[in-house]
Every structure is written in structure tokens, then in C-alpha cells.
Amino acid sequence: MGIVSWIILGLIAGGIAKILLPGRDPGGLVVTTLIGIAGSFVGGWLSSRFLHHAVAKHFWDPATWGAAIAGSFVLLVLYRIFFGNSRN
């Protein structure tokens, strides 16, 4: 997959992570989207590095989607922990 595919996957994974973790985000839609993109990269890297599951070369691999969504979810949780009260 190319960089554009990872960005698209990250946008969708960030949206799914947001649905799984409802509530108000400190950064809004743009930051949540960027977290989704970063999460897809982090999830893919962690999957290939520690789980020894190479990232697939095609867009529709369920393991790649799972890694991207999990990475986005973890980064969104960490973002809320560290910056959760910034809108008060």
C-alpha cells in the first residue's frame, strides 16, 4: 500500500475509533482525523514489529484494518488522557 492508501485508511480508522470512543475530543474533528492517520501508521508498525504480522500489500486486509483501528483507538485514548481538560 502506498502513503495515500494509509492516509485514507487512517481517516476511516480514526472515524471508527471515534465511534468506539464517543464523547467530546479536546482537539475537535481535525485533531481526531490526524490522530486516526497517525494511529494507522503506529498500528501497522506495531503489528509488523511485535506481532510478527507483516502489513498486507492490499487495502482490504482485515488484519491491517484491525491494526489501524486499534492504533487510532490507543492514540485517541492517550490524547484524551493528556489533553482532556484543555477546553475548559
Explain what this protein looks like in three dimensions.
With 88 residues, the chain is mostly helical. It is built from three helices and no strands. The chain has helices spanning 3-20, 28-50, 62-83.
Structural Rg: 13 Å
Low-pLDDT segments: none
- Based on secondary structure, the structural category is mainly alpha
The number of distinct β-strands equals 0
Q: Note the main sheet.
A: none
Tell me the distance between the termini. 40 Å
How many helices?
Answer: 3
Give the topology:
Blueprint: H1 3-20, H2 28-50, H3 62-83
Summarize this structure as a short list of keywords or feature phrases.
single chain, 88 residues, globular
Summarize the structure.
The chain is mainly α.
